[in-house]
Amino acid sequence: MNRSTDNLRSPVICVMGHVDTGKTKILDKIRHSHVQDGEAGGITQQIGATNIPVTAIQEQTKMVDDFKKILIPGLLVIDTPGHESFSNLRSRGSSNCDMAILVVDIMHGLEPQTVESINMLRKRKTPFIVALNKIDRLYEWKASPDRDVVATIKQQKKFTKDEFQEKVNHVIVQFAEQGLNAKLHYENDDLDTWISMVPTSAHSGDGMGNLIALVVQSCQTRLAKRLSYSENLQCTVLEVKAIQGLGTTVDVILTNGRLKYGNTIVLAGVEGPIVTHVKGLLMPQPLKELRVKNPYDKFNEIKAAQGVKILAKDLDKALAGTSLLVAKRDDEIEILKDDVQAEVAQALKSIKLQERGVYVQASTLGSLEALLEFLKQSKIPYSGISIGPVHKRDVMKASVMLEHDDQWAVILAFDVKVEREAQEIAENLGVRIFTADIIYHLFDAFMQHREDLKK
Ligand code: GDP
Ligand code: MG
């Protein structure tokens, strides 16, 4: 291929799959970091973006046989929270993710969230590659991360190979049950028809190079058109974060176009659209993640695709999971404000509420959706939702349930603050507010509360 690489942007890759399959660990392995160890409860609660530059790709794919030239400027990899399944980016900016890595634990096969992820990817028509992870757990597996995984599999003892094949066959049958044709990557010569499965171990490092190489190769051959850089801005807010010394910042995924110092930006906020000016554009050192505290480099202009931290005034109430727009002229601002707010209204409107149930509050659209999904599975109804800190008006809304059934006069507040006034009113009225930054903890607290009420 003679195609110039100047005009290709980095593909945005999301890592999906069931909880505990090793999504975060795979990313850790790629960037040699230890995010997984430091996470609350080991579960990724927020989304992070990691930029993997060409040099790192080269380094990590050295052992892969037949790996051709790298034409893309790098990979932008997004880890998704365990419970969230990337749903905050599904409807809004869903076009954001160019390719996915679907992680399957080879010992467990397809699990509920794997199927959920598959359905989501299909709906969005996002191509994906399967990482058949934890191969080091096969009986007497001999690791050899500096070799191509195909050679490593060949050198295993017969019973290890047999166990491997048996597990692989099982997963293939499970994929077939989902209507998908899957093959081991080294047996797949038709990527348009078959989904490739790369055997990996995020633990020993086996197959990690193969995984990266296949992602790069598939992006280059199958997505070249989609990856040609466009000046039309495509930018999604991933996280809103207060940082000491910097104030409240937003972390965004800039998929296309560029951001410049001084740009007038318009984004959705908890209390209406926010219009502000870019006072700083930061990027972490390559291979570090936006979530991890580390020194940032400052830029005057950043071209897609990148994960960027934006400094600006008035970001306190910004809402993650929505588009960030740039106003080129002042008379555009009002239109853009309507656009971002319509996006939020659309997202909240699509959530079905029950007549009776708990009141749910979260810091982002994504975590709200994750929490609701969890409650749905746990058969706990919800009658009200809100994003941002718990205000007096939230308590008032939740208190309506006191007339019906006091077990629902509860606010489940995920990763948000409770205003003092709201707390006082809640205590007076008899509304219970539970706060936590781990979904399970909120759930446990609520279940305990229900038990206590019964007594
Ligand atoms: P996530 O929920 O999908 O992000 O999963 P994590 O990355 O947090 O991993 C879940 C658990 O599986 C952790 O204890 C990891 O150390 C472990 N793990 C992840 N990948 C591997 C692997 O390849 N081999 C083994 N043996 N353990 C793994
Ligand atoms: Mg994780």
UniProtKB/TrEMBL annotation:
Which interval of the chain is the signal sequence? Answer: none
Task: Report the residue ranges that make up the Tr-type G domain in this protein.
Answer: 8-224
Which family is annotated?
A: Belongs to the TRAFAC class translation factor GTPase superfamily. Classic translation factor GTPase family. IF-2 subfamily.
**Name of this protein:** Eukaryotic translation initiation factor 5B
| Species in which this protein is naturally found | Clavelina lepadiformis (Light-bulb sea squirt)
Q: Which residues of the full protein are shown?
A: 520 to 974 of 1116
